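FW: tagging you since you asked about this chain on Friday. Here's the raw sequence from the shared folder, copied in full. Didn't touch anything.
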Amino acid sequence: MRMQLIMCLTLLCFTPVFALTPKTPADKQMGNSSKTNSTQKYVDVDQDDGEFNAIGSKKKKKSTKSSSAKKHVAAMHSTGDMVMIINPEMRAQDLNEAFAFLRKMSKTRAISMTLLDGRSFTHVLSMDVMKGGTMVIVKTSTTKGVKYHVVNIENIENITHE
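HL: got it, structure written out here
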């Protein structure tokens, strides 16, 4: 299966990256996927072997770490979901600001955090981003006292009021 992705990727350097589907709903109906834009570069994705190349150039074998990351992005794209890869520090900052906003809006309502694996933390007292920006220390209040949880940034689905 072949698809096209808009790539501005430097996965190994952890810079902000956007990988979006180039097809609009009108293009999908018409079967037209050959749009070009001077600021965007389209890339062929071959999911069989993980090789990527710019359209019209020879395929070059990428490192296995880069190939596996690109396969993951391609697999997510095959489901029709939009994928936006951002710097973990930026995501941590956004989550921290969201937590501060919820805390400021209502000091009496409990804040809860839902993780991608289905777990949730209720009565979140504080959220501290670690130095590297890839992990968060979540302080929760339980009937047995205060507990601390260390969570990867990419595993946090949302933060809400209860």
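FW: The chain has two domains: 2-85, 88-161.
HL: agreed, and The first strand starts at residue 2 and ends at 6.
FW: great, closing this out.
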